[in-house]
Amino acid sequence: MDLLTAIKTRASALKIRDPAPSREHLQLILEAGARAPDHGKLAPWRFTVLQGEARHVLGELMAQSLKARNPEADADELRREQKKALRAPCIIAVAAHITPSQKVPEIEQALAVGAAAQNMLLTAHALGYGAMWKTGPAAYNPAIKTALGFTTEDHIVALIYIGSIEIAGELRAAALEDRVKWMG
Ligand SMILES: Cc1cc2nc3c(=O)[nH]c(=O)nc-3n(C[C@H](O)[C@H](O)[C@H](O)COP(=O)(O)O)c2cc1C
Q1: What residues line ligand 1, using a CB cutoff of 6 Å?
Q2: Using 50, 70 and 90 to split pLDDT, how confident is the model at 66?
Q3: pLDDT tens-digit map of 139-157
């Protein structure tokens, strides 16, 4: 699939199932992430690939995080939260590791990692997989950051759920109206 077609046809998958991308395809997806523009060549991206049983650890921590936010959460809600980590056979956690720098402000480093996440979504789509970029409270939880191998100062910018498409998402129109000024 050529790049323009990938950009024009990508949509978040509504339901994702087994199988996960092959190891070779995961490597391509990760390399696409690391091809993002990178001011100062700081390579601020950090990736953790969760598959199989490793997703249960994330699910358990997500349920604990919900309990901490909402002590009233009942067993059903906690189970639902726990199962969220099983919505795809593979989750790539994408974090920004910020290097203190006079030249490259934090926001630029975080943006580079956002660009990495988009490269990964497009590559997954071009390879025929379904994916969805999520965050939610889990992304901001220090215990979850640590469990995924990041530091508590790192920013999880994406949890990319990825696998085979069970239900494809609908294509969203590009929202340009009132958002573009042509000058000159
Ligand atoms: C930084 C970021 C975080 C997001 N987090 C969530 C999320 O936690 N849950 C969710 O349903 N969508 C989330 N989204 C939006 C979806 O990934 C998706 O882009 C949106 O639903 C539009 O659908 P589309 O990708 O098919 O155009 C997030 C998007 C970004 C850029």
Answers
A1: 11-12, 132-136, 169, 172
A2: very high
A3: 999 999 999 999 999 999 9
Structure tokens at 120: 């990964």
Calpha distance 99→46 (Å, rounded) = 12
| Residue 131 identity | A
Residue with tokens 């391509």: 28
Ligand 1 midpoint to CA 8 (Å): 16
Q: Whose CA is nearest to atom 13 of ligand 1?
A: 134
Nearest residue (CA) to ligand 1, atom 4: 134
Cα–ligand 1 centroid distance for 51 (angstroms)? 21
How close is the Cα of 160 to the center of ligand 1, in Å? Answer: 10
Matching CATH number, 15-51+86-167, of 3.90.226.10, 2.40.128.110, 3.40.50.720, 3.40.109.10: 3.40.109.10
* 115-127: average pLDDT: 98
In angstroms, the CA 8 to CA 29 distance is 18
Q: Say which residue the tokens 């199989």 belong to.
A: 52
Q: What is the pLDDT of residue 61?
A: 96
Q: What is the pTM of this model?
A: 0.97
Spell out the domain ranges in the chain.
15-51+86-167
